[in-house]
């Protein structure tokens, strides 16, 4: 039978361990309170924006499209991809649509919504689970046209939310050195989408173009 | 002494382990079909019913209004948008509930 002193010491030690676990792990995971930053480092911080699991690094990639910078020029080991699609958001629904880009890889994009949407253009690092996504633009908009160079390897794209009761259509067109496209739905399903190759782009033969 | 310490710390760690599961975000859009003090059932447009826990921390608002309402503002038959967290769809706690106009 342990002595009273032993029991008291054991209780105190257990209490200390419980407090350490509470502050470093339970509070970040359960309540999003992360005073020591351990939740973020361990990838367990509760986050409202995260809606679906991230693809594993390199998932769906045929070639790793890492740019090699040569002055103002960046060379890639393969051709760029093109993508164009229409997404429909039902009442109060949201969707995330993201492309996978290596660090420094670029894309250009245009999107237009049929009504006002809540939006967040952001990126998630490879293999991230609950880490905070990095937001690039959250300004209220109905459309956007831009170019983007990925600050880190991962999936980068848009969170669009329909704030009202009528369906909203979003038309998105992008071209760039992305290697896969991922769609995250409100029912927590994730779909990898087919990307277009340059063969889809109609060619105009030299000399046949009429100049006005 | 060491045995007692190891035992105490093991038990503490085991007790702390269940809450470590990372909670996921669920959005449920549908109609309230059942309502009691601590939980409500919401049926979505696909006909699937989710049971969601509610408590004092649950924030209730009416569509785009900023004013917070009491849980008593919720009624069976209302259309709602529920943002809930849980380990899976069978263990959900409502963080925000928006009462919205009837869904089309």
Radius of gyration of chain A: 23 Å
Uncertain runs of chain A are 46-54
For the record, the CATH class of chain B is Mainly Beta
CATH fold-type name of the largest domain in chain A? Jelly Rolls
Shape of chain A: elongated
Number of helices of chain B: 1
**Percent of sequence in beta strands of chain B:** 35-45%
Unreliable parts of chain B: none
Mean pLDDT of chain B: 86
Strand content of chain A: 35-45%
Tally of individual domains of chain A:
2
CATH class of the largest domain in chain A: Mainly Beta
Termini distance of chain A? 101 Å
How many extended strands of chain A? 11
**What would you say the CATH architecture of chain B is?**
Beta Barrel
| Rounded mean pLDDT score of chain A | 83
Strand adjacency order, main sheet of chain B: 1-2-3-7-6
Largest interface, counted with CB-CB under 8 A?
A: A-B, 35 and 31 residues
Which secondary structure elements does this structure contain, and how are they paired or packed?
The complex is a heterodimer of chains A (212) and B (104).
Chain A lengths: L3 H28 L6 H5 L25 E3 L2 E3 L5 E9 L4 E8 L4 E20 L8 E4 L3 E9 L4 E8 L6 E9 L4 E4 L5 E4 L19
Antiparallel strand pairs in A: 1-2, 3-9, 4-8, 4-10, 5-6, 5-7, 5-8, 5-9, 10-11
Chain B lengths: L1 H15 L7 E12 L3 E6 L4 E5 L5 E4 L5 E2 L9 E8 L5 E9 L4
Parallel strand pairs in B: 3-7, 4-7
Antiparallel strand pairs in B: 1-2, 1-6, 2-3, 4-5, 6-7
